[in-house]
Amino acid sequence: MEEVCQSRVSDVRREGDIHYLDINADDPTKSLKNAGSARRIPLHPAVIAECFLDYVASLPKDGPLFPDMAPNKFGRRGGNATKIIGRWVRKKASLILAKRRTTHGVTGSRTSVATLALRRRNTMRCSDD
Predict the structure, then answer these.
(1) Half-sphere exposure of residue 8, counting CA atoms within 13 Å on the CB side?
(2) pTM for this one?
(3) Phi, psi of 127 (to 5 degrees)
(4) What 8-state DSSP symbol labels residue 97?
(5) Which of 26, 28, 78, 104 would bridge 2 by S-S if both were Cys, CB 3.0 to 4.6 A apart?
(6) Are 9 and 56 contacting, i.e. CB atoms less than 8 angstroms apart?
(7) Half-sphere exposure (CA, 13 Å, Cβ side) for 129?
């Protein structure tokens, strides 16, 4: 989560028809868990359909990808990101979360992009529609 939250607007790139998030440490404010953590993550069509590229275009070109994710006391942007993004996904996509039992007997809520794609079609129109 930290690697995504520390991304810059310039990390959203396109190669051919594929938009992706470039996870890298090309800025002094960013770090990776290890050298093998640098990678390109293709943006899922559901993310693009939710107008993510319009969101990116609305931000300053040299700024953080998620400027509302304020750094915590350790300078990390991913501190509360899981909670914030989870709330947004549930509200935006109207997900019904499946409750599952873990091996420790604790009941938790889990979901995935596949669940999002299967349970709800995009109803939002982007600026290019």
Answers:
(1) 14
(2) 0.64
(3) -65, -25
(4) P
(5) 78
(6) yes
(7) 11
Vertex 23: Cα angle to 97 and 58 (nearest 5): 75
- Which residues, in sequence order, are bridge partners of residue 42? 20
Q: What is the DSSP string of 27-38?
A: STT---SSGGG-
3-state secondary structure of 100: strand
Residue by residue, pLDDT tens for the chain (129 residues) are: 888 888 999 999 999 999 999 999 988 888 888 888 999 999 999 999 999 999 999 999 999 998 888 788 877 877 777 777 777 777 766 544 444 444 444 444 444 554 444 444 444 456 655
Beta bridge partners of 39: 23
